[in-house]
Amino acid sequence: MPSSYTGRFAPSPTGPLHAGSLVAALASWLDARAHQGRWLVRIEDVDTPRCVPGGDQLILQQLMNCGLTPDESPVWQSQRTPLYQAALDDLTARGLAYPCACTRSQIQAELERQGHAHNRNGELIYPGTCRNGLRGQPARAWRFLTQVIPTTAHPEPVEGRTESTVHWDDLHLGPQSQDVEKAVGDFVLQRADGLFAYQLAVVVDDAAQGISHIVRGQDLADNTARQILLQRALGLTSPQYLHTPLVLGENGEKLSKQNGAQALDTRDPLHALNAAAPVLGLRVHATSLSDWLVQATAQWAKLRTPHGAGL
Ligand code: GLU
């Protein structure tokens, strides 16, 4: 019977892969292989100002060097704008998205006026100013109205939960929840510069590509509740989520392109993969790339069984 599993790796081409992004790529590939599923690569170049020329080809080459080859041709988000527009139009038509005229400083001023803490991870929690209209100002961005969307899987809000609280079971982190309205507020779907936001693009594409399992770095876990709310609003099935441990830099912070993580040298793929493996609880001894990947897949499959030790 063919597997209904479809996984993906969705890098933003803001630079080459580094040690941390290889862990996420490897974990998503291993999980797909362990489930006899398909594995896709999607280049998330929707935030064009942050992309570097040639970054996409570099990443694809690095993945190939490590033997992580997608089962279909990769897709580029920059070529999929009409899909995001259609989703935004659908949400708007149903009163679940609205235009917003607020500048960052206006949001900051409003939060101060309300006596709220300014930000969370540097992001301002939107106070809902434009929920009831633009007050004669021009629209800048489009926001999602955070509220519960009843579905057959989640028919009624449970007493004691606020309406925008999302609960999900992460296959690595365990039970998770977030009240999106409180933690983030009505979040942006289309930015003031006209670009579609990551949250909308990722949800539309994961559904369009039939992604059943999202395996990605733990730094992205905080986005999951927003994405589940959007899936419910758009009538889409939510995939399963597994957030992998992060590679930490010398300063103890998450290794990222932003804090100067070095580009991964994949000319020696076994060296790169051997460095990634322990983060995922794998210990592989192999002298060829194909043996390495076979062993790693078998180990991963054991970790992911109901009685496995987990990552
Ligand atoms: N494009 C995102 C990033 O590189 C990842 C998106 C995802 O896996 O959901 O950070």
Helix content: 25-40%
What's the count of strands?
A: 12
Instruction: Give the uncertain stretches in residue-range form.
Output: 157-162
**What are the secondary-structure elements, in order, as H or E?**
EHEHEHEHEEEEEHEHEHEHH
Q: Roughly what is the average pLDDT, rounded to an integer?
A: 91
Q: Compounds present?
A: glutamic acid
Strand order of the largest sheet: 1-2-3
Largest sheet: 3 strands, parallel
Specify the overall morphology: elongated
**What is the end-to-end distance?**
28 Å
**Count of individual helical segments:** 9
Describe this structure in words.
By secondary structure, the chain is of the alpha/beta class. Helices cover 32% and strands 16% of the residues. The chain has nine helices and twelve strands. A three-stranded parallel sheet has the order 1-2-3, covered by helices on one side. A three-stranded antiparallel sheet has the order 4-7-10. The protein has a two-stranded antiparallel ribbon with strand order 5-6. Glutamic acid is lined by residues 10-12, 44, 202, 216, 220.
